[in-house]
Request: fold
Amino acid sequence: MTDERRDDETIGRALSRAIETIDVNQTPYERSRIAAAPARRSIFGLWQIATAAAAIVLALAIGSWLTRPTDGQPGVAASPTAPTSPIPSVAPTASPVQALSVPIWVYFARDGLPPVGASIDAHSSSAVLSSAEGRIGSRISALSGYGSGSIPAGATNPMSLVARPAPTAGSSQGSMGVSVSVQGDVAKVEFDLSPGWGVRGSAQSLALVQQLVYTITEEPGIRRALITEKGKPNAVIDQLVLDKPLSREDVFGYSFIGAVGKAQGISWGGDDSVAHVGARMLAAVSDGTRAAITLEGRGPNGAVANLPSFDAWLEQSDDTTKIGAKYTLYVQLQWNGGGNSNGAADVTMFEQTPLKAVTTNGNNVFRIELDDARPWRVYMPSQTQVVIEIGGDPRATSDRIAVTAPKPGAIANSGADLTLTGAARVFEANVVWRVLDSTGKVVANGHFNASLGSSAMWGTFNTRIPMPANVRGNLTLEVYEVSAKDGSAQGVVQIPLSVR
Amino acid sequence: MTDRWREVYEREYPRLVRALLAIGRDPAAAEDAAQEAFVKAHQTGLDKIEKLPAWLLVVGSREVFRKAKRARRETDLWASLPARDDGFDTSADRVDLLAALGELPDRQRAIVVARYYYGLSYDEIADHFDIKSGTVGATLHQAIERLRQIQLAGRLARGAMR
Reply:
């Protein structure tokens, strides 16, 4: 190949990677026009064309929010010579004994969001599954053979792109192409992949690393994953160099980690005038990225009561216990008037990333069991209720601002008001916003007050901001705090909007 | 049959939309064209199409050009495209390249995407896009050369503004 040709190839590859990182919406098959078409061959046809058209409008609205960047991209996308379909996860020559099909918890990647967990079937033997190493290997093998069939909405399975080497005579089931060793809380996972990783571009590589780190550390007692290539101390995935053990918090995509430790927690001086007030769980929502638990004060007679003083804090937890959470967010209410709080122990399983479960003594102690230490916050809609909110879209979440609406990629109308909701913990409750056009020019700005400021407790906001008239296209909404010290923008969140 | 279509759709759709967006620069048109391409493939029948990915790309890009002619509207998509900071790549280069791609003539855009994003061979490109196989290489080289110049100009301009 001439230098010129090689140079062209380099630019071509860079361009391919650039295209691969374009955020697009994956209109689900059900809403595609072929699913709606009066099919010649299929008996499908329940969906109306109008639905498909609406889906396209919606697709633009959702923009980068619900994208599936890498899904189902076989080798051809990257290069015509890339290896093709992976080999099934059970070695064909495997011994006939005890090939089990067991549900196993793994993670799938999402563009712009932290990974999401799901249960899939692993095919392995009880001998393999009896060790931590075997279970980790089985999880990776299961993902590798899983393709991109039935996976959580909006998620991808980058592991399905990684080609496996052909099985050799001596290879054990469940750990094909991967050798795992555990030391302390680190699992070292060595990949034997002569054809390379099979992923291209930063979006796919990052997705693969996220998926692997979350899946490997799903093993109880394991907090970090060291991913290497056979015969090398590190792994190089496209342009990404992995040379140290990574925790979930290293890869989850938030710009900071949720405060850990009781001293970093939130203490609230509530209404302690009434004896024997506890709380009950009023609501729990979890959408795979953000979880919110609402607790409501309850007096001894069961009536709604003002909440007493309470503490909320996050701690690493021992995940070798039955629930298997990596972190626990404690909410402990003051128990006034002596005696034992005496509630009935209760556990509610959620199994929805990041919310695994909520356990409680049924009265004044709640343990929110979590998959990772993503940012969290506490706010009080009223004197009787407290909301513990965990996570959120990383683009809309900073250490002091968490915007729940609009979602990144939402559509807004030029000249109309936009509803802005969320929570903030800023000086004197003063929240500042501005809208930038695609060149970075400020086209609108303003400020408003959150319900609470200068406090450990977060304040909330639900306000309307005017979108400028005559400005359309891809704009960015920034919400932040202005530093009282030097006027600089602090804790900025940037929410891309499509303004029409 | 439905399952086969589902599989094909789920495998090919994201890539097709991305390619058409790179070619046509209009997200609405790209989605629309991709859906149309699938409808046409569906009408034609899976067993009658030899190389489905390339087929979809050709039909889809034709659709994009048709729509673009009908309504030449500018979007400022490129200036703001991957504003997302994923921390592992400098987005400036990506934006530059995509913007530069947008400056190329219609046909060159489609061929560049077919070659480098879809990984089609020269012969496949000649076949599907109905051009002489001898001119594919030259066209590609010309296009890449243009890309390089535009990208460089963009970088210089940005540097000058700082």
User: Anything to note?
Assistant: DSSP finds eight helices and no strands in chain B.
